[in-house]
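Dear support,

I submitted the protein below through the web form. The confirmation email said the job was done, but the results page showed an empty box. After a refresh the structure appeared. I'm attaching both so you can tell me whether what I see now is the final result or a partial one.
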Amino acid sequence: MPRASATIATASARETHTLGKLLAKRLHGGEVFAINGELGAGKTVLVRGLAEGLGVRHHISSPTFLLMRVYRIKDRGKKIRRFVHVDAYRVQHPSELTDIGLNEFFGKPDTVVAIEWAERVKPLLPARRYDLTLRLGKTLNVRHLTLHRR
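What the results page shows now:
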């Protein structure tokens, strides 16, 4: 994982997905990703890659109406046992996520948390996290991903 920050460009959704898978291979558990970017920037594609790289066997879709989904990782050889995917797009107040128990997953050594639209719940975010921003490039399909460790 980068020590401070890094920016990476991807040229397709497939590359963004693969980047998520590669990132997942470097995780140890307890990580929280605060993911931001405009509509269509590739947030969910990246999250799908993270989930696949961690060993989640379910189809990942944005939990826009459910707010949060918890996926169990069944591979007994892995330390990471849960992947929590949050979509804060429709959240009006951060307490909506504390009410459903999101903060209980922060920092758990067997859990990785990915929060899409994290800027909407910034007061809720733990101090130790990875801020991940996806921006659309000037040409079709190019995404610029900036990862900053806090």
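Response: this is the final, complete result; the empty box was a page-load delay. The first strand starts at residue 5 and ends at 10.
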